[in-house]
C-alpha cells in the first residue's frame, strides 16, 4: 500500500510562500532541467556571463598586461579570499583563493608538518574520505616518514592522542553527507595539541560555518561546488592569523614571495596569507569564482540552510513514500549532515542515467550511491516533487534496465 505523500499543489504552495524564490532568476539554468548536482558543479550565475565578457574583451583584450595593475588582477587571490573569509567566519587576511583543493591540502599539510618536526607518528584521517584527501595524506606521510591512519568514522575520536602528528577531516562527507561536529572535534584535537585541517569542500556555501567560533585554525575548500565558481574553479586555503607566521608553503613559488617583482634569487615568504600562493593565478577562473562568491555573499546563509533543511525533509518524505527501494544513508538530523541526500541501491548507476534522461540531474558515487544535491538558491519544492515523481516512474517501469543506461562514462 502506498503511504501518503505531499501533493504537487502542496509543493507549489510552498514555493509561492518561499522568500528565497527570487534567487532562481539569478541563475542561467537550462529549461526543463531539474538540477540536483550543484554540490558537484554549481550552476552558472547570470552575472558570470557579463563578467566573463568583460574579463576577456576589456581586461584581457584591451588592457593586455596592464590589467595586472589596472584591473587589480594581482590582488584577486587575496581579494576573493577576503570575501570567502566572510562566508566561513574567518577574518580578512586569513583566506587565499588559489590552486585546487588537492594542491592546497598538500601545501597546508606540508607546512604544518614542517613546522612541528618529530611531533607524532601518524596522520589521522577517515577511511572512505574523499579520495584526493587520502591520496595526498598518503603521499605526505611517506615523505615525512609518518604512518597514515585512515580510521573508521566512529573511531576517529578515540584515535586522537599524542601519537598523532596531524589530523585531516572532511567536514561534510562527500558520499553520505555526514557532518562532523566541528567545535567538539576541534576542542578535542586542541586538548591533545594536535593540528587539524578541515576540508570544507561540501560545506562552504551549504551549511553555516564559523571558523572563529569553532576555533578551527586550518582549512581548505572548493570553489566549483556550492560557491558556483565554474568548472575547475580555484579552491581556497584558510590559516588563522595566529598560526600563519609559523608556516611556510612547501611549494616556494614566486607569487608567494614577499616581493615577486623584485626578481631576487633568494626566497622570502610574503608576510601574509599570500605566502601560500605558488604560481601565476588563473585570472579568468578567479574572476568567475568571484562572481559566484559575490552572489553567495548577498544571500543570508542561515536562511539558505533553513530552506535546505526544508527541502531535505520534503525529499525524504517523498522518497520514503514513492521510492522505498532506494535506501537513505544521510542523517535525517540537520546538524549531522550537509546539503545533499544520498540513497543506496545496487543499480544506482543505471538509475541515475535514466533519471538524467528524464531531465533530473543528480549523480552517482561508486559503488552504489545516488546523490541528490539540494541547492536552495535555485531549487524549489515543486522541483523536488517532479524529481521524485520521475524517479518513481523509472523505478516502477524498470526503465533503468535498458542497455543504454549500463554504459560507463569517464565522469560519474
Ligand atoms: C570536491 C572535493 C575535492 C576536490 O578536490 P580538487 O583538487 O578541487 O579536485 C576535495 N576534497 C573533497 C572532500 C571534495 O568534496
Number of domains: 2
Number of strands: 13
Gross morphology is: globular
Number of helices: 13
CATH fold-level assignment of the largest domain? Aspartate Aminotransferase, domain 2
CATH architecture of the largest domain: 3-Layer(aba) Sandwich
CATH homologous superfamily name of the largest domain? Type I PLP-dependent aspartate aminotransferase-like (Major domain)
Low-confidence stretches: none
State the end-to-end distance.
34 Å
Main beta-sheet annotation: 7 strands, mixed
Bound molecules: pyridoxal-5'-phosphate
Question: Strand pairing plus helix content: what structural class?
Answer: alpha/beta
Radius of gyration computed on alpha carbons: 22 Å
- How are the strands of the largest sheet arranged? 2-8-7-6-5-3-4
Please state roughly what percent of the residues sit in beta strands, choosing from under 5%, 5-15%, 15-25%, 25-35%, 35-45% or over 45%.
Answer: 5-15%
SSE run: HEHHHEHEHEHEHEEEHHHEEHEEEH
CATH level 1 name of the largest domain: Alpha Beta
What proportion of the residues is helical, as a percent range? 25-40%
Mean pLDDT over the residues? 97
Amino acid at each position: 500500500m502506498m503511504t501518503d505523500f505531499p501533493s504537487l499543489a502542496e509543493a507549489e504552495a510552498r514555493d509561492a510562500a518561499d522568500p528565497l524564490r527570487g534567487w532562481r532568476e539569478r541563475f542561467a539554468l537550462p529549461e526543463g532541467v531539474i538540477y540536483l548536482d550543484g554540490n558537484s558543479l554549481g550552476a552558472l550565475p547570470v552575472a558570470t556571463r557579463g563578467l566573463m565578457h568583460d574579463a576577456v574583451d576589456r581586461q584581457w583584450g584591451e588592457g593586455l598586461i596592464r590589467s595586472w595593475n589596472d584591473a587589480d588582477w594581482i590582488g584577486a587571490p587575496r581579494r576573493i579570499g577576503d570575501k570567502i573569509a566572510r562566508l566561513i567566519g574567518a577574518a580578512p587576511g586569513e583566506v587565499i583563493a588559489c590552486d585546487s583543493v588537492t594542491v592546497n591540502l598538500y601545501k597546508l599539510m606540508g607546512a604544518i608538518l614542517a613546522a612541528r618536526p618529530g611531533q607524532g607518528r601518524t596522520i589521522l584521517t577517515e577511511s572512505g574520505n574523499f579520495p584526493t584527501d587520502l591520496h595526498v595524506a598518503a603521499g605526505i606521510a611517506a615523505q615525512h616518514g609518518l604512518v597514515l591512519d585512515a580510521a573508521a568514522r566512529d573511531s576517529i575520536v578515540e584515535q586522537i592522542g599524542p601519537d598523532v602528528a596531524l589530523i585531516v577531516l572532511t567536514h561534510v562527507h562527500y558520499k553520505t553527507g555526514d557532518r562532523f561536529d566541528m567545535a567538539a572535534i576541534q576542542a578535542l584535537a586542541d586538548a591533545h595539541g594536535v593540528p587539524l585541517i578541515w576540508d570544507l569542500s561540501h560545506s562552504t556555501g551549504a551549511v553555516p560555518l564559523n571558523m572563529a567560533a569553532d576555533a578551527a585554525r586550518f582549512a581548505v575548500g572548493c570553489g566549483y561546488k556550492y560557491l558556483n565558481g565554474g568548472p575547475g574553479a580555484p579552491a581556497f586555503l584558510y590559516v588563522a592569523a595566529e598560526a600563519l607566521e609559523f608556516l611556510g608553503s612547501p611549494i616556494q613559488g614566486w607569487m608567494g614571495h614577499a616581493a615577486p617583482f623584485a626578481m631576487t634569487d633568494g626566497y622570502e615568504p610574503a608576510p601574509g596569507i599570500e605566502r601560500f600562493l605558488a604560481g601565476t593565478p588563473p585570472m579568468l577562473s578567479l574572476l568567475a569564482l568571484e562572481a559566484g562568491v559575490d552572489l553567495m555573499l548577498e544571500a543570508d546563509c542561515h536562511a539558505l540552510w533553513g530552506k535546505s533543511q526544508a527541502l531535505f525533509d520534503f525529499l525524504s518524505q517523498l522518497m520514503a513514500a514513492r521510492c522505498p527501494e532506494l535506501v537513505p544513508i544521510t542523517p535525517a538530523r540537520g546538524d549531522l549532515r550537509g546539503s545533499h541526500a544520498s540513497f543506496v541501491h545496487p543499480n544506482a548507476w543505471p538509475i541515475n542515467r535514466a533519471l538524467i534522461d528524464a531531465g533530473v540531474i543528480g549523480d552517482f558515487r561508486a559503488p552504489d550511491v545516488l546523490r541528490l544535491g539540494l541547492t536552495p538558491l535555485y531549487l524549489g519544492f515543486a522541483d523536488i516533487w517532479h524529481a521524485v515523481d520521475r524517479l518513481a516512474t523509472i523505478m516502477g517501469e524498470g526503465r533503468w534496465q535498458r542497455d543504454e543506461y549500463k554504459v560507463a562514462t569517464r565522469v560519474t
